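Task card 7
Instruction: Convert sequence to structure tokens.
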Amino acid sequence: QLQLVESGGGLVQAGASLRLSCDASGRTLSRYTMGWFRQAPGKEREFVATISWDEGTTYYADSVKGRFTASRDNAKNSVHLQMNSLKPEDTAVYYCAAHRIPYRSAGLKGVADFGSWGQGTQVTVSS
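Output:
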């Protein structure tokens, strides 16, 4: 059973940076495309970024492109999301997730494509 635990969230001012981490246990992440999603109060969970199992491909939501960077360290069984130039509209609970099936394309970015989820970490950006 794959377990994911996010960390690194917090309260920051607009323009600041945060680095989220997602540590896995129970199964190696190296075969799975990983994703980051977020959910603001009253809104649906939305795609933020994916990074392919071989680190070769990343996709980003238009709203975060150029500001957020997804990375992974398969040796440490972890993934990260570097968030720069944060805006108040980035405020949300951020979740990491692993694809249901190994070796799938990072282009599969829907919530239903992911089978394992962390508990989330709160990111709050004040103006």
